[in-house]
Amino acid sequence: xxxxxxxxxxEIARLPGCDLSETTCVVFDVLRATSSMVTALAHGVExxxxxxxxxxxxxxxxxxxxSVLAGERHGERIDGFELGNSPFExxxxxxGKTLVTTTTNGTVALRACEGARVVLVGALLxxxxxxxxxxxxxxxxxxxxxxxxxxxxxxxxxxxxGLLVEALGDAQxxxxxxxxKALPRLFSDPLSALQTAKxxxxxxxxxxxxxxxxxxxxxxxxxxxxxxxxxxxPIF
Length: 236
Ligand code: MLT
Fold this sequence. Notes:
This protein is of the alpha/beta class. The protein has helices at residues 9-13, 33-42, 54-63, 106-112, 127-137, 155-168, 175-182, 190-196, 198-205, 209-215, and strands at residues 2-6, 23-28, 47-50, 68-73, 76-77, 98-102, 118-122, 141-146, 172-173, 225-228, 231-234. The strands form 2 sheets. It has a 7-stranded mixed sheet with strand order 9-1-8-2-7-10-11, with helices on both faces. A 4-stranded mixed sheet has the order 3-6-4-5, sandwiched between helices. It binds D-malate. Residues 29, 32-33, 72, 75, 85, 103-106, 149 line the site of D-malate. Residues 29, 32-33, 72, 75, 85, 103-106, 149 line the site of D-malate (MLT).
């Protein structure tokens, strides 16, 4: 297994032009898109359609009767959407539902990986199950995609990617993978890493500290999601 990492949105924007046909991508947006998606998967959501823009979300929702609009801009629920992007909004009322969601970085990162052989949804919340899924699949090439925040590198995504590299054990690593693997050693625990991250500090400043604490819970859920044909569905 060879593991590489896309560290920021600029690298992610180039992915559609890359040959990912033999690559398994794992997308991390720990604060909070993939944490919310993993939570929804753990609570019985039927499918989550990530899209990049609000117009795309509105158009897709119109084609999917009964589907629910979800997502954020600048961290807040989008006007007219039923759900925002707090993981706590996905602990109930999503069972059996189909969600159409757009967020600042996480959904964009997922769609950028569409050409990959396999696309998995990663978070701290499902890290153990994710590592086991990858060990079971044993792909030759893995790309860990750190969604970032706006145009910037996001510490929390790279931290989660580093824990996954550590959990996967024996693998060939790119320089970026070696770098993220070293990150967790800088922090006493996941919560301190997330509270240090800019995105975490912004969320705490908005009174959303409990969401940061939840997103820091490692292997809290055993749900793993795979995106196929534009929809994230649970892997059983
Ligand atoms: C993102 O997609 O950039 C984040 O999930 C934004 C957020 O949830 O605040």
